[in-house]
Amino acid sequence: MLDLEIVPERSLGCDAWEFVLGMHFSQSVAIIQSQVGTIRGVQVLYSDQNPLSVNLVINMPQDGIRLIFDPVAQRLKVIEIYNMKLVKLRYSGMCFNSPEISPSIEQVEHCFGATHPGLYDSQRHLFALNFRGLSFYFPVDSKFEPGYAHGLGSLQFPNGGSPVVSRTTIYYGSQHQASSTGAGAGGAPLPELPLSCYRHTLHLRRCDVLRSASATHGLRLHMFTEGPGRLEAGSRSVCRVVRFGSSAQRVCAALGAPARTYYKADDKMRIHRPTARRRPPPASDYFFNYFTLGLDVLFDARTHQVKKFVLHTNYPGHYNFNMYHRCEFELTVQPDKCEAHSLVESVGAVVITAYSKWEVVSRALRVAERPVVLNRASSTNTTNPFGSTFCYGYQDMIFEVMSNNYIASITLYQPEGTRPRYAVNSIA
């Protein structure tokens, strides 16, 4: 049984780890993965067809805990303890819920102090005691009428008839009404990313794709990270530009060291070539993976210059879900001119974001070509439970589209004939 400490308006955890309001989904998953054997039977709940309107939820049924994430920002907004019998709970070191201690109204008031009068829902027969950032819900028998004793917001019950807490929610601010419906708590306010979750990395606010009429030149990244010193308790903003042709050193200077470097696999058909035995194996192109930016940068193995950018949207149900944070990009595309009956039809620019649906984008861009079906399989599992995705090429872009019509990733590349011989010397 987990023995956890509640911090109202902030967190639920212990000395080794804690779930903090505002933390990213991937950081919560990393905590759970580090507690294999202690936290078991975890479920991830999401809507495949409406991933932006239905909360993203991590359910831990063996511990009676539910973590509710904002579906757009993918950060933790409500912590719900829905089965009090499966967990021990403390506040400021004082235990108020355990197999030996029943979380009655008197016990809660003794541990947390007085509060303003509680709220009674006569339709659901539910009584709530609300503190800032914390609410307790008590099921009440319909035969008891609400009446307040000594101004503490308690119902008057006969001896031994006081109800016990059935559910506890931790949230940000004082909007307890917005958090009173559990997994449907869509109106709960979302705090900023806590400083404890920065972890000395850059996080993305916005990514502007720099383009001319029909060609991509680079990215302008608006980022934030910790303040420069311990005395500055806050974040600082950083803006950098990376372009096609930039060297690996200049990308590192602009974005910092990558979270991981990935080398593309060798061509497996090379063994069948006549010259395969006489030539040494070619060097491999390599990626800089920036997971908290939702970005991959591909470098040419020979020139060590940028030749591709991959922007990830991190939708649940995709093969790479939870590997990257969502890249909040804005891409403005000028559609190709359409010639019909010797007349040139002018079409306005199309703005594409991480939340655009492909059916709208393809209609505006008039993408006619058939997609390439992309099948992924891991080394340990030959099947992909999420199914295939579909890749559409347009100008110097490749759109990877999921079956629900949301864009999973966009690859921006520089055609072979337009690559510069030398690195671009501007990073800002």
Automatic annotation (TrEMBL):
- Origin superkingdom: Eukaryota
An example Pfam family from this entry, by short name, is PHAF1
Name one process (GO BP) from the record.
Answer: Golgi to plasma membrane protein transport
Q: Give the GO cellular component terms, alphabetically.
A: trans-Golgi network
Q: Which family does it belong to?
A: Belongs to the PHAF1 family.
Question: What is the protein named?
Answer: UPF0183 protein CG7083-like
Supply the source organism for this entry.
Trichoplusia ni (Cabbage looper)
User: Taxonomic classification, please?
Assistant: Eukaryota, Metazoa, Ecdysozoa, Arthropoda, Hexapoda
